Each structure stands twice: as structure tokens, then as C-alpha cells.
């Protein structure tokens, strides 16, 4: 059984990471070897799993969720520090575009209820992709699986793959200013990030890219589900900036990458 387009994208991404691990400077020999071997193993695993054939098709449809998780964590092995100059430029753009000087003044310009809603929306960046794919399954559109994953994987891998070359800290880690929202959802968001995040900022924003690519891919064949997912994706993008999880440039670039991934998926 041949590989799907989305699986070829996955193989290419992990092959790229293996090459990046061999080239990126300043990482230790053991860490470099670990990154290379992990990336090669992942690239080999994709066609190996696909070779199991018809009985494996259902779980094969869902395997990209595993590839996304591994594809997110693996580039962090290639980072030993961040880029202060890039961080400064991203913060400068935030201050210029948003007309603010720090996180405190930004939160003061947004009504408290809106901040809380955006925090809640940002929390949905994690289940957004499986939720969107489940919508297609429930609607009997399993045949759209490869197009869906092509859009989403191009979007997320396009963000994660840049990390070794453009590593930055999230703005909340630099500004250090308290947010007006210190409620349960905010604390839960920070708790999740503390436990599951690689503690680095992805530029473009992988959360925005994944969310918007999911919404676009679903809308293309199921507008009734794609429209609310699209509104949620926009709220996630806004929440990522207002909550200082990402820079404004991260969110904007993530949206562009999502759109490009979606457009390519429609050509497949």
C-alpha cells in the first residue's frame, strides 16, 4: 500500500529534522545523536506502519496526532538557547502594532470578561485538531482524511521546523508583568504549558496554524462545522496574543502558514 500525501509530508519533515540535527551548531554529541536517531526512526516508522494494510486503516487515519506530538518535541532537542535580538524585534512589533508598552497595558485595554473568554478559547488549541478531524468522521467524510492531514501537517510542521533556527522565549517570560486574568482558566493554561510545553516559543505560532488549518480543512467539506471552528480559531489567535503566550507576529505568521497549507492540500 502506497503512502498518502500527508504521510509523505511526515517522512519529509522527520528527514529534514535529521539533517538539521547534523547541521545545527552548539548542541552536544549525545544530544545530536539522540535527535538524529529519533528523527530517522520516526521517518522509517511512517511507511512501516502504513505497510500493515487494510486492517490498520482506521488507526492509520488518527496516527498524525502522534506525529504532531513527536514533531513538536523533537526540534527542542536542537535548541540550547534563545535569540535575544529576535525577541527584542518581536516585542517591538507588538508594541508598535498593538500600541502598548507591556502586557499590563495590553490587558488594561481589553475588558476583563473578554480576557477570560480568550483564555478559555486558547485552552481549546489542544483539542482543536482531533475535534475537527472527529467532525469529518462523524459526518461520514472519512475520505477527506488525507486532505485534512495534509493541510494540518504542512501548517504545524512549517512552524515547528523553524524552531532550531529561530528560538525565542514567549513574551510572558520576558515581560514579567502580571495579567489581569488570574482566574482558574488562566492558571490551568499555565499549568498545562508548564507540564507539556517545550518552554520555547514557536515562530510562526503552531497553535494558531494548527487551529486555523483545521477550521479551513473542515469548512471546505463541512461548512456547518467549519464555521464555528473558524471562529474558535480566530479566538485562539487573539487569546495567544492577549494572554502573552505568543507575539502578534507569531499569530499572524501562523495564520499565513495555515492558509498556505490549506491551499496546497486542495491541490493534492
Identify low-pLDDT runs.
none
What structural class do you assign from the helix and strand content? mainly alpha
Number of helices: 14
Largest sheet: none
**Span between N and C termini?**
18 Å
Query: Got a strand count?
Result: 0
- Average pLDDT, all residues: 90
Radius of gyration: 19 Å
Structure description:
By secondary structure, the protein is mainly alpha-helical. The protein has a domain of 186 residues. The chain is built from 14 helices and no strands. The longest helix has 22 residues. The mean pLDDT is 90.
Key attributes of the depicted protein:
mainly alpha, 268 residues, globular, 71% helix
Précis, in short:
It contains 14 helices and no strands.
Task: Describe the SSE topology.
Elements: H1 5-23, H2 29-50, H3 57-62, H4 64-73, H5 84-98, H6 103-109, H7 112-123, H8 128-138, H9 145-160, H10 171-175, H11 184-196, H12 206-219, H13 223-242, H14 248-267
Amino acid at each position: 500500500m502506497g503512502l498518502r500525501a500527508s504521510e509523505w509530508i511526515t517522512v519529509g519533515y522527520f528527514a529534514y529534522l535529521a539533517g538539521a540535527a547534523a547541521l545545527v551548531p552548539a548542541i552536544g554529541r549525545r544530544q545530536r545523536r539522540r535527535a538524529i536517531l529519533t528523527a530517522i526512526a520516526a521517518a522509517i516508522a511512517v511507511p512501516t506502519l502504513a505497510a500493515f494494510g487494510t486492517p490498520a486503516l482506521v488507526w492509520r487515519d488518527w496516527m498524525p496526532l502522534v506525529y504532531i506530538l513527536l514533531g513538536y518535541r523533537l526540534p527542542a532537542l536542537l535548541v540550547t538557547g534563545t535569540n535575544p535580538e529576535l525577541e527584542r524585534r518581536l516585542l517591538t512589533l507588538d508594541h508598535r502594532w498593538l500600541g502598548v508598552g507591556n502586557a499590563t497595558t495590553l490587558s488594561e485595554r481589553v475588558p476583563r470578561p473578554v480576557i477570560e473568554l480568550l483564555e478559555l478559547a486558547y485552552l481549546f488549541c489542544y483539542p482543536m485538531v482531533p475535534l475537527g478531524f472527529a467532525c469529518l468522521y462523524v459526518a461520514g467524510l472519512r475520505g477527506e482524511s488525507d486532505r485534512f492531514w495534509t493541510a494540518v501537517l504542512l501548517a504545524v510542521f512549517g512552524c515547528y521546523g523553524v524552531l532550531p533556527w529561530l528560538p525565542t522565549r514567549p513574551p510572558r517570560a520576558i515581560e514579567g508583568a502580571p495579567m489581569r486574568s488570574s482566574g482558574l482558566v488562566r492558571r490551568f493554561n499555565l499549568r498545562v504549558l508548564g507540564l507539556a510545553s517545550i518552554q520555547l516559543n514557536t515562530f510562526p505560532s503552531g497553535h494558531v496554524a494548527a487551529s486555523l488549518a483545521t477550521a479551513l480543512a473542515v469548512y471546505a467539506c463541512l461548512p456547518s462545522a467549519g464555521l464555528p471552528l473558524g471562529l474558535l480559531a480566530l479566538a485562539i489567535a487573539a487569546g495567544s496574543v492577549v494572554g502573552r503566550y505568543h507575539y502578534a507576529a507569531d499569530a499572524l505568521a501562523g495564520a499565513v502558514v495555515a492558509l498556505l497549507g490549506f491551499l496546497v492540500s486542495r491541490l493534492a
